[in-house]
Amino acid sequence: MHRSFLSHDSLPTRSMQHSHTTQKLDQPTRQITVLFTQYLARFSLLGLLLTLSACDGSPPSSQTQSSTTQPEVVSEETATPSTRDRTTGSIAIASEVRPEQPIALSIPIDCQLGDDCFVLLYPDTDPGSGIRDSGCGQQTYDTHQGTDFAVSSLADLDRGVNVLASADGTVLRLRDGVPDRRLRTTAEIEAIAEQGIECGNGIVIDHGNGWTGQYCHLAQGSVAVREGDRVQRGDVLGRVGVSGKTTFPHVHLTLRYNDEVIDPYSGQPAAAGCTVDRQPLWSEAQPYTPSGIVRIGFADRPPTIDGLWDGEFTAPQIDTKAEVLLFWAHYYGVKAGDIERYRLVDAAGRVVTEYEQEIKANQVNGMSYVGKRNTPQNPIVPGIWRGEYSLVRDGQTIAREQAEITVRSAN
Ligand SMILES: [Zn+2]
């Protein structure tokens, strides 16, 4: 059996940092505010390539504040949807040589990056067992070959998000029929890997001049092309799903030139590193944005990271009889030392919570929340509440969002 670039696999372990703090607000009303944080922290990665030994891909600065485990949150794989995959042994010996025939790519998803979608993971540009994304950051995992264009939750998929051809080409091969199931546990991930369907429903397109694009994790039954079809850039290939080895809703695009993985953010072989002469292949500038907010919202019970990816905790209204009113943020690419700022204002315009805390460890994605308990002395008042959330790095606000929720009287 050939040793192929498909043979390695990532097996994230789960580590959750959990701090549970009760904070008394310095206000005459003596309202009790609860602050919970949950961090999805790190990955343990298994590399089976001869040149890539098994390693722990967690950021060096990750803290081990807690050993509690929970289902992992970010993982997916890049296997092509065919047994006819070619092998490649070039990953560890890539040099900085620009492909002779350039290609211009558009993003493979029908959404606005930074608005209703975002890049969660970049190609791993470290040829060894370390991780280094396109911008020399940590938004990747060991051996990740593609770019992951994500939407914020499964709820986004209900409206149907199209996967688009990033360039003209011909459909080489495809697969459909893999169920949409967002993976949560290591056992589930291993099972998918054993079946060899890491890419899920996917398509490989020959983009010409030695270039190919591999599109993964499409929704079951959505593949809209056939082998041999000619496609043009922007054509609909199918819909974003959660098939194959994926723990979050996204389309994965691996770009190859003569079978070598290319980082579209540099135009260079991914294995050449992140400090290369950069000439991005995107037809429109795609800023490297390794950190940001996935989503914010309100809940009347403690959210979980799985629930957030599943699209839960988004009730448009909360009842005045709720035990708590929580305001949460789901974020990605935070770094140790980043500051989270929360502000929660009740329907009467009173600041219920104004709180900031420092992120303790780098996280590919994670969540935290603040909130208010409902007490007879200080009930959750009806009306429109507002939450504001900011991420601050080195004194600069790098992401900020606000949201409102209606608290309705329960009679
Ligand atoms: Zn991916």
Topology:
Blueprint: E1 16-24, E2 32-40, E3 118-121, E4 147-150, H1 154-157, E5 162-164, E6 169-175, H2 186-195, E7 201-208, E8 211-218, E9 230-231, E10 236-239, E11 250-257, E12 260-263, E13 268-269, E14 292-299, H3 305-310, E15 317-319, E16 324-334, E17 339-345, E18 351-358, E19 363-373, E20 383-393, E21 396-408
Parallel strand pairs: 15-21
Antiparallel strand pairs: 1-2, 2-19, 3-4, 4-11, 5-10, 6-7, 6-9, 7-8, 8-11, 11-12, 12-13, 14-16, 16-19, 17-18, 17-20, 20-21
This protein binds zinc ion.
Structure characterization notes:
Mean pLDDT is 80; it is low at 1-93. The chain has helices spanning 154-157, 186-195, 305-310; strands spanning 16-24, 32-40, 118-121, 147-150, 162-164, 169-175, 201-208, 211-218, 230-231, 236-239, 250-257, 260-263, 268-269, 292-299, 317-319, 324-334, 339-345, 351-358, 363-373, 383-393, 396-408. The longest helix has 10 residues, at 186-195. Strand 12 and strand 13 form a beta hairpin. It has 3 helices and 21 strands. With 411 residues, the chain is mainly beta. Zinc ion (ZN) binds next to loops.
| Biggest sheet statistics | 9 strands, antiparallel
Going by helix content, strand content and strand pairing, the class is mainly beta
Specify the helix fraction band: under 10%
Q: Please give the alpha-carbon distance between the first and last residues.
A: 68 Å
What is the structure about, briefly put?
The chain has 411 residues and is mainly beta. The protein has helices at 154-157, 186-195, 305-310, and strands at residues 16-24, 32-40, 118-121, 147-150, 162-164, 169-175, 201-208, 211-218, 230-231, 236-239, 250-257, 260-263, 268-269, 292-299, 317-319, 324-334, 339-345, 351-358, 363-373, 383-393, 396-408.
